[in-house]
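User: what does the whole thing look like in 3D?
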Amino acid sequence: MENNKVEVIIVGAGPAGASAAITLARAGKKVLLADRADNAGDKNVFGGTIYAKQTAEIYPNFWETAPVERAVTEQKIFMLTDCDSVQFGYKYASKASYKAFTVKRSNWDRWCVEQAQKEGAYFAPKTLVKELLIENGKVVGVQTEFEKFYSDIVIIADGVNSLLAKQIGLRNEIKDKDVSLSVKEVIEIPKENLQDRFNIDDEDGCACKILGGPLKDIMALGFMCTNKNSIALGYSVSIDELKKHNIKPYELLEELKEHPTIASYIKGGKTIEYSSHLIPEGGYNCIPKVYDNRVLVAGDAAMFVNNIHFEGTNLAMLSGKLAAETAIEALNLSDCSASVLCRYYKKLENSILIKDLRTHRNTIDVIRKNIHTLTSLYPELACDFFDLLTSADEIPKRAKYRKFLSKFIKSRGITASIPFVFLAMEKCFKK
Amino acid sequence: MNLDEKLATLKYNKDNESHLSVDEDVCIRCKEKPCTFICPANVYEWNEEKCIMTIRYENCLECGACKIACEKNNITWRYPNGGYGVKYKNG
Ligand SMILES: Cc1cc2nc3c(=O)[nH]c(=O)nc-3n(C[C@H](O)[C@H](O)[C@H](O)COP(=O)(O)OP(=O)(O)OC[C@H]3O[C@@H](n4cnc5c(N)ncnc54)[C@H](O)[C@@H]3O)c2cc1C
Ligand code: SF4
Ligand code: SF4
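Assistant: Here's the predicted 3D structure for the full assembly of 522 residues, as structure tokens:
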């Protein structure tokens, strides 16, 4: 690297940064990708699934060589009451149309960075960017612990806490209701037991979402995913709820592990890793300004997470790619000012990223208002229904039906579900 | 499984200086002290008698929750230096 100067510096080697780096390197641009971790991925945590189609747009046929754990062939929802559960799932047989894969982030992120390096990107691990270098009001590079690096453009892909976007006023601190804390354990289970419990074949995987049980009546969602020889189990909960209910995150995780349904999956397992990470949950309403003179923001740093559909890595990769494509145009025009870099937001608007986030701009608020219905009432009603269907005893069926119906109506299940019906209609028909 | 056992599953490269600090004069006036219970690694402990906050920064998981939870904006929060801090093998 001549005089510590490149065309583009990317801060953060997560899905967003690596995708930006490989896109720039493929176009022959000189690019430096910096991450504070020893190895890319060492600091990163997620719930378990990357999406095949969008990932393959950056890393074609990645499943042939990348360190994936399992191809997801079943997605399940667990509705828990205090002791019981109703589970339903969607199982798809065809491996020809891969939808999603489970991966371990330390392996996956490292592999992505290696692909970018093969294309010519320069990777600097163990490199904490302390701040952006500003000259005459413009970003000209980055200050690490030991050195200064200069570039025409900096792509900020430093994740949910994005200290750098904050430094230059593109972002404020996130509000506690707009961000969730996740805690998770990776629990080692012999492969055969794991496959039996999830009823899956050798390379197949299962991804589950968990509602209710110990997580009832709070803005929290559990998840459980199968790796090759382990289960990733955890939940995320909004920080304002943690504060309001005086929750110690690790204690609630224990309660989830002890729920009879969950316990049956992890029985005999050994926890090999505990971890924690934030998820931006504010969606469309919290998107900051994502470009300025000589600077672009991608991935979690720009709050690009679709929490209704559990999408984050795909949006990080997509925004990294679009940021890189914008940078390439600007470099070719020799104009890296905001007047050219604003094309980045146009590209985002034309992609599924902004469209989907806009679709769900108010969904979280609706869920928040109906959290009791969703996490307490529905699981209870679902369990009651199956109990009614399957219990043979002395009570006449008609009396049971009446009891069930009166509980349903008393608990205002119908009224409470009206907003969901409206919401669904709005999502389907409104542009 | 208690928190100590959970944290024992992790590998850390301990930095010599703390990447977290608080102004205890502000903490005295903080009623709820959310940092002392919402932290997934129980890094903060308040001593009511001495009005001292113990910060076990070496256990920090670098999530960022404490700085968002602190309504008084009283946590000076940064990442540990490059290569230091927690290191996940699975993620
Ligand atoms: C529990 C959980 C479950 C999730 N489940 C899913 C899921 O199933 N599917 C899905 O698609 N998404 C999921 N997500 C979301 C997904 O993980 C994120 O959206 C995605 O990782 C964002 O990528 P990123 O590159 O923007 O940021 P990150 O992956 O956070 O990467 C940021 C990088 O920047 C580095 N960094 C930060 N600051 C600096 C600095 N100053 N100097 C140098 N380096 C720095 C960090 O070390 C890190 O490597 C989940 C997230 C969580 C927490
Ligand atoms: S939340 Fe903030 S002000 Fe309150 S005790 Fe913790 S650091 Fe101090
Ligand atoms: S960053 Fe997370 S783990 Fe570290 S002290 Fe704050 S809340 Fe605790």
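In plain terms: Chain A has a mean pLDDT of 94. Residues 177-280 of chain A form a domain with the D-Amino Acid Oxidase; Chain A, domain 2 fold (CATH 3.30.9.90).
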